[in-house]
Amino acid sequence: MSIGGIGGIDPGRIQAMMEQLKAAATKPAASPVAPVGLGAPGASPAVAKLDFADALKTTLESVSATQKEASDLGKRFAMGDDTVSLSDTMIAMQKSSIAFQSTVQVRNKLVSAYHDIMNMQV
Protein backbone atom coordinates (compact mmCIF):
# COMPACT_ATOMS: atom_id res chain seq x y z
CA MET A 1 0.00 0.00 0.00
CA SER A 2 2.96 2.30 0.21
CA ILE A 3 5.18 3.71 -2.48
CA GLY A 4 8.84 3.18 -1.77
CA GLY A 5 8.09 2.18 1.83
CA ILE A 6 7.46 5.77 2.86
CA GLY A 7 3.68 5.59 3.15
CA GLY A 8 1.94 6.96 0.10
CA ILE A 9 -1.11 6.22 -1.95
CA ASP A 10 -1.41 2.88 -3.70
CA PRO A 11 -1.00 3.25 -7.50
CA GLY A 12 -4.22 1.26 -7.96
CA ARG A 13 -6.14 3.80 -5.89
CA ILE A 14 -4.66 6.64 -7.92
CA GLN A 15 -5.78 4.94 -11.12
CA ALA A 16 -9.29 4.39 -9.70
CA MET A 17 -9.49 8.08 -8.72
CA MET A 18 -8.39 9.12 -12.20
CA GLU A 19 -11.09 6.90 -13.73
CA GLN A 20 -13.71 8.48 -11.46
CA LEU A 21 -12.58 11.98 -12.42
CA LYS A 22 -12.68 11.11 -16.13
CA ALA A 23 -16.16 9.62 -15.77
CA ALA A 24 -17.39 12.71 -13.91
CA ALA A 25 -15.87 14.99 -16.55
CA THR A 26 -17.67 13.21 -19.39
CA LYS A 27 -21.12 13.50 -17.79
CA PRO A 28 -23.35 16.15 -19.33
CA ALA A 29 -23.37 19.35 -17.26
CA ALA A 30 -27.06 20.06 -17.95
CA SER A 31 -28.29 16.90 -16.24
CA PRO A 32 -30.35 17.60 -13.11
CA VAL A 33 -28.68 16.67 -9.86
CA ALA A 34 -30.76 15.42 -6.95
CA PRO A 35 -29.91 16.86 -3.53
CA VAL A 36 -27.79 14.57 -1.41
CA GLY A 37 -29.75 12.70 1.22
CA LEU A 38 -33.12 13.72 -0.28
CA GLY A 39 -34.33 10.90 -2.44
CA ALA A 40 -36.89 11.66 -5.09
CA PRO A 41 -40.19 9.77 -4.85
CA GLY A 42 -39.75 6.37 -6.43
CA ALA A 43 -35.95 6.71 -6.55
CA SER A 44 -33.86 3.75 -5.50
CA PRO A 45 -32.13 4.03 -2.13
CA ALA A 46 -28.73 3.38 -3.73
CA VAL A 47 -27.25 6.64 -2.41
CA ALA A 48 -26.27 6.27 1.22
CA LYS A 49 -27.00 9.13 3.56
CA LEU A 50 -23.81 10.46 5.14
CA ASP A 51 -24.10 10.94 8.87
CA PHE A 52 -21.98 13.76 10.29
CA ALA A 53 -21.31 11.90 13.53
CA ASP A 54 -20.05 8.85 11.63
CA ALA A 55 -17.83 10.99 9.41
CA LEU A 56 -16.41 12.76 12.46
CA LYS A 57 -15.81 9.49 14.27
CA THR A 58 -14.07 7.97 11.25
CA THR A 59 -11.84 11.02 10.89
CA LEU A 60 -10.89 11.01 14.58
CA GLU A 61 -10.10 7.30 14.43
CA SER A 62 -7.90 7.92 11.38
CA VAL A 63 -6.00 10.69 13.17
CA SER A 64 -5.58 8.46 16.21
CA ALA A 65 -4.24 5.61 14.06
CA THR A 66 -1.78 7.99 12.38
CA GLN A 67 -0.53 9.17 15.76
CA LYS A 68 -0.19 5.60 17.03
CA GLU A 69 1.75 4.57 13.93
CA ALA A 70 4.12 7.54 14.29
CA SER A 71 4.62 6.78 17.98
CA ASP A 72 5.35 3.12 17.26
CA LEU A 73 7.87 4.04 14.54
CA GLY A 74 9.55 6.50 16.91
CA LYS A 75 9.85 3.88 19.63
CA ARG A 76 11.19 1.28 17.21
CA PHE A 77 13.75 3.74 15.84
CA ALA A 78 14.83 4.76 19.35
CA MET A 79 15.29 1.11 20.30
CA GLY A 80 17.62 0.60 17.34
CA ASP A 81 15.35 -1.33 14.97
CA ASP A 82 17.27 -1.55 11.67
CA THR A 83 14.06 -1.89 9.63
CA VAL A 84 12.95 1.65 10.56
CA SER A 85 14.74 4.59 8.97
CA LEU A 86 14.96 8.08 10.39
CA SER A 87 13.26 9.54 7.32
CA ASP A 88 10.28 7.18 7.64
CA THR A 89 9.97 8.06 11.30
CA MET A 90 10.15 11.81 10.69
CA ILE A 91 7.65 11.66 7.82
CA ALA A 92 5.19 9.65 9.94
CA MET A 93 5.57 12.16 12.78
CA GLN A 94 4.97 15.11 10.45
CA LYS A 95 1.89 13.43 8.95
CA SER A 96 0.61 12.83 12.47
CA SER A 97 1.25 16.42 13.46
CA ILE A 98 -0.48 17.84 10.38
CA ALA A 99 -3.49 15.55 10.84
CA PHE A 100 -3.82 16.59 14.48
CA GLN A 101 -3.46 20.30 13.70
CA SER A 102 -6.11 20.11 10.99
CA THR A 103 -8.45 18.28 13.38
CA VAL A 104 -7.97 21.00 15.98
CA GLN A 105 -8.70 23.68 13.37
CA VAL A 106 -11.91 21.92 12.32
CA ARG A 107 -12.93 21.64 15.95
CA ASN A 108 -12.26 25.36 16.46
CA LYS A 109 -14.42 26.21 13.42
CA LEU A 110 -17.23 23.99 14.70
CA VAL A 111 -17.13 25.61 18.15
CA SER A 112 -17.11 29.05 16.54
CA ALA A 113 -20.11 28.15 14.37
CA TYR A 114 -21.93 26.76 17.39
CA HIS A 115 -21.34 29.99 19.32
CA ASP A 116 -22.52 32.05 16.33
CA ILE A 117 -25.73 30.02 16.11
CA MET A 118 -26.35 30.23 19.86
CA ASN A 119 -25.90 34.03 19.82
CA MET A 120 -28.37 34.58 16.96
CA GLN A 121 -31.44 36.60 17.74
CA VAL A 122 -34.65 34.64 17.24
TrEMBL record:
It comes from the Bacteria. GO terms for biological process: bacterial-type flagellum-dependent cell motility. The keyword Signal does not apply. GO terms for cellular component: bacterial-type flagellum basal body. GO terms for molecular function: cytoskeletal motor activity; structural molecule activity. Pfam families: FliE. It is found in: Bacterial flagellum basal body. Coiled coil: none annotated. Belongs to the FliE family. PANTHER family: FLAGELLAR HOOK-BASAL BODY COMPLEX PROTEIN FLIE, PTHR34653. This is Flagellar hook-basal body complex protein FliE. It comes from Telluria aromaticivorans.
